[in-house]
């Protein structure tokens, strides 16, 4: 007897073992096989197989009609309590829908009904340049954008969205000229009228197309993953060729870039989204380029710096709303574009680092590998040293702090290398000059600093090192050696306070948290809101435990270095 699929899947998952040469693939397979949705799918598959073995046949093909007849008969005379209950059941929307589905399956009329072919179809087939494409698209968008060729007036397929109906069919390509939609000519229609015609076509759609002279080869779906380091709202972007096809995202989202064919506009999906269709995002090159390099030359543009307008039938598929007439064909100045998306303007580009995307990959700590460095940064009032010390004191065998250096005299109860490394000012200054400290400073005329070697010393003992630093130190710590996991600790700040002095303190704390988030939030892996020390310690312990056994997104350079 054949083993049930769900049991086979569980056995297969248990046999997966990390392999030095194929670790990433193994982790990927384990994640896929462990998905609860896949387990449910397997169970549904088993039920369908059992159903198929039983070979049940419907007793009748018109259960809906019979239910209506029974309901009409019940209403023709006085009814008992049981008859009233039966009438209520038979007329309920849910049961009527179930019976309707039953009849559809029993009659086997659930295949899409395609319209008849045009009368002149045979004649059109004789013309090599024309092809008829018939797609079943249901309520989803076609997944293609169109534009008007300004020189010829032709309606051209501008781009195919990966994972959309057009892409899955393999029958529509970039550069194809669109002549008719469901027998209606599009030659004299505006692109937005054509998009509306496409979106209104349900069940099936017939396109008359003149294929591009040179069809581009379909690219394999990319496995490039990027962490977004800025927020993006397509409906506020004046430069996007099709705002409805744009993919909105937030800083920190992981994006799978499925196509970089267009150097200006990539196609991407958000990791974790159930939506299979890709959306448009500005490319890294486009985001980082100075204004003078953004002039797009196109034979069909209205001017050298105006890209052709693209329209689609997406109807706000990604944005949750449809805003008609918001499409713009003018690429305005780079300053306008940055301002509209909430990013830095051109004037301050030279003052601050402009952030776009960081290529990432999945990473899990290996059993024989040194633990990742845990970096705690905090805004005013977070008191992260107290939090760190409490967690370490609870489990000193697993967690430790990097012993700092100092130039102050050793006290009688202190031991070298335990509380501090006690050194002379000359030695400290020399180490600082040689960049041996991740950060250092002066307090009451004594110098204090945390060295890189102190961190390595903790990791060499196979302990997880916890350091709390000023955010400026993050750039020096983000290396393949340390693979830091950065936790931003913020105190819970009440909305208001009665005393004026207390309100001023709270406002200063809010400002501190905002400034840290604005300048360093893109480097943060986790935000921990500290309401009280006990709950914050519990949350930090949970984070540290998961860090040792779960998979996380890290920069590609950390793994391939």
From TrEMBL:
Q: Coiled-coil segments, which residues?
A: 499-550
- Chain ranges of the SH3 domain: 221-291
Q: What does the UniProt keyword field contain?
A: Coiled coil, SH3 domain
Ranges where the Guanylate kinase-like domain occurs: 371-545
L27 domain residues are 1-55, 56-113
Tell me the ranges covered by the PDZ domain, including all copies.
132-213
InterPro entries noted in UniProt: GK/Ca_channel_bsu, Guanylate_kin-like_dom, Guanylate_kinase_CS, L27_C, L27_dom, L27_dom_sf, MAGUK, P-loop_NTPase
Q: Which residues cross the membrane?
A: none
User: Keyword Endoplasmic reticulum on this protein?
Assistant: no
PANTHER family under this entry? MEMBRANE-ASSOCIATED GUANYLATE KINASE MAGUK
Family classification: Belongs to the MAGUK family.
User: Under what name is this protein listed?
Assistant: MAGUK p55 scaffold protein 3a
Recorded source organism is Cyprinus carpio carpio
């Amino acid at each position: 007897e054949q083993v049930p699929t769900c049991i086979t899947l569980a056995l297969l998952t248990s046999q997966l073992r990390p392999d030095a040469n194929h670790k990433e693939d193994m982790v990927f397979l384990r994640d896929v096989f462990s998905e609860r949705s896949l387990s449910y799918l397997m169970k549904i598959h088993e039920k369908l197989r059992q159903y198929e073995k039983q070979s049940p046949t419907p007793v009748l093909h018109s259960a809906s009609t019979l239910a209506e007849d029974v309901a009409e008969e019940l209403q023709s005379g006085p009814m008992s309590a049981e008859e009233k209950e039966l009438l209520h059941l038979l007329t309920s929307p849910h049961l009527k829908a179930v019976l309707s589905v039953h009849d559809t399956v029993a009659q086997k009329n659930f295949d899409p009904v395609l319209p008849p072919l045009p009368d002149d179809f045979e004649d059109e087939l004789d013309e090599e340049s024309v092809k008829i494409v018939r797609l079943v698209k249901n309520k989803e968008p076609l997944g293609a954008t169109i534009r008007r060729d300004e020189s010829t007036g032709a309606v051209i397929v501008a781009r195919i969205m990966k994972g959309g109906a057009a892409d899955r069919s393999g029958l529509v390509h970039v550069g194809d000229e669109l002549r008719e939609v469901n027998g209606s000519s599009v030659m004299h229609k505006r692109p937005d009228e054509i998009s509306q015609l496409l979106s209104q076509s349900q069940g099936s759609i017939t396109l008359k197309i003149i294929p591009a002279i040179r069809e581009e080869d379909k690219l394999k779906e990319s496995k490039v993953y990027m962490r977004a380091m800025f927020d993006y709202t397509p409906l506020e972007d004046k430069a996007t060729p099709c705002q409805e096809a744009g993919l909105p995202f937030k800083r920190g989202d992981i994006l799978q870039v499925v196509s970089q064919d267009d150097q200006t506009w990539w196609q991407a999906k958000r990791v974790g989204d159930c939506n299979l269709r890709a959306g448009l995002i500005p490319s890294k090159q486009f985001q980082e380029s100075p204004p003078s390099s953004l002039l797009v030359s196109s034979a069909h543009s209205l001017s050298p710096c105006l890209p052709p307008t693209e329209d689609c039938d997406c109807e706000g598929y990604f944005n949750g709303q449809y805003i008609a007439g918001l499409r713009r064909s003018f690429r305005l100045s780079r300053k306008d574009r940055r301002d509209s998306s909430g990013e830095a303007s051109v004037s301050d580009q030279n003052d601050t680092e402009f952030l776009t995307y960081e290529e990432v990959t999945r990473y899990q700590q290996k059993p024989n590998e040194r633990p990742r460095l845990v970096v705690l940064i905090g805004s005013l009032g977070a008191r992260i040293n107290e939090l760190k010390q409490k967690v370490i004191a609870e489990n000193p065998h697993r967690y430790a702090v990097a012993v700092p250096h100092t130039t102050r005299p050793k006290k009688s109860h202190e031991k070298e290398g335990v509380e501090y490394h006690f050194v002379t000012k000359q030695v400290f200054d020399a180490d600082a000059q040689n960049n041996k400290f991740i950060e250092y400073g002066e307090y009451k005329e004594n110098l204090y600093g945390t060295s890189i070697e102190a961190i390595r010393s903790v990791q060499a003992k196979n302990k997880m090192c916890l350091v709390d630093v000023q955010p400026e130190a993050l750039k020096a710590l983000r290396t393949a050696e340390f693979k830091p996991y950065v936790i931003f600790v913020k105190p819970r700040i009440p909305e208001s306070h009665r005393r004026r002095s207390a309100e001023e303190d709270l406002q200063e704390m809010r400002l501190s948290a905002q400034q840290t988030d604005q300048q360093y939030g893109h480097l943060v892996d986790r935000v921990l809101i500290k309401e009280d020390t006990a709950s914050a310690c519990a949350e930090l312990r949970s984070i540290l435990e998961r860090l040792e056994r779960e998979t996380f997104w890290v920069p590609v350079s950390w793994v391939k270095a």
